[in-house]
Amino acid sequence: MAGSLTEHLVASLSRPIAAADRERASLHVLDWAACAAAGAREPVAAFLPALAEGGRAGPCSLVAGGSADATAAVLVNAGLGNVLEMDDVHRGAIVHPGDTIVPACLAVAEAADLPGEALLDAVITGYEVAIRLGLAAGTGHYRLWYTTATCGTFGTAAAIARLLGLAPERVVDALGHAGMMASGLWQCREEPTASKQLATAHAAQAGVMAARYAGAGARGPHRILEGALGFFAATCPTPRPEAITAPVGPWLIHEVSFKPWPACRHVHPAIEAALALRDRVAPGEIAAVRVATYRDALAFADRPDPTTPHEARFSLQHCVAAALLDGPVTLAHSAPEALACPHLGALRHRVALAEDPDRTARYPGRFSAGLAITRADGTVLTAAVESARGDPENPMSADEIREKARGLLSGALTPEAAGGAVAAAAALPGGLPVRAFGRALRADDLPSNDGRIDHAA
Hints:
Order of helices and strands: HHEEHHHHHHHHHEHHHHHEHEEHHH
CATH superfamily of the largest domain: 2-methylcitrate dehydratase PrpD
Strand order of the largest sheet: 4-3-5-6
Distance between the termini: 54 Å
Number of strands: 6
């Protein structure tokens, strides 16, 4: 292959974008916005304005209320989408592209007063780059590196380069600059930190900087991926460059999954399996529950005794017990009241985990789990989920995605305003100005919940 991997990647971005692609992108923009608006009610959101200290007034919307210049909007908004673990995800790449790409594109498009089509085309382009790079980086990279931040930096750079109208050679430069700044280590999940939000904020802003720097004429390393001192050599034990050079088909945004429940995606197959059995057994009949799943699900979500809302959302035991006890998992199930609930705690301690080597072998192409419930009388009920709800093989409908968004937005906006934001997102493919969508998201009288989520929410 002639040229560098980034040159090959950029060349693949020139294919047409169809109306159906933009419709799909508008759902991802809405999904990110709703997740961010709900995340803005959480205590961690109070730290993010410190990143934009000294920012100027501007036309770019802050989902927590008000407006600012593009730099401030990127930094503050891009820390909010992952707070409640309801963000979109590409399972093969193990990257949450919306967390970095959407807020960066929204701010830059608002600042330039661009139409909705421009925003959506940039989002589609950015998702393509982040996903292809995540697929190339592989699970060896994901073991230590927060792929959403590392690959998200590259994806954001490509998206902003599209908004800025950069020539292909300048986009290659932008990806080179992005590689110089791509970062984010998984130690943040081993300790009680707010660093994950900083990582996505930094990745989004770094992508914007990379594109603007390239647009000014600054040359970047073209072999930032495959070079002897490049991204693969430094961070990827078993890179798969063929994921970048493979023939292109439909835009990869169509492969991205939506999350129906507020929990780590590795937990979702087990939640769905529990829901499949819930109506067949009463909680008092359950003697034991066994979850068999892939290795990374255990590495991320084996938490038998969660003590914080964040830990609850990363606990297979807690979420499976909640699904068996109450039905679909909601934000209320990670509230302090739920963590202290004796009935939920007792059931949680009956949930055992085990690795299923066959499921590990199919991961990350499949996020799957098997669940077995042993009744007090010794009989056993089983269920298996091979593709979690929201995956391409088990999709949420557009109406379900909009209903999810409406519910999350209603915590920050009036029901009427939440409906208006949903409608505004649907109008983006038809040319609604991005500023109009941004204004629909603003929650200038946002209530604080002091870290608690109402069980009735």
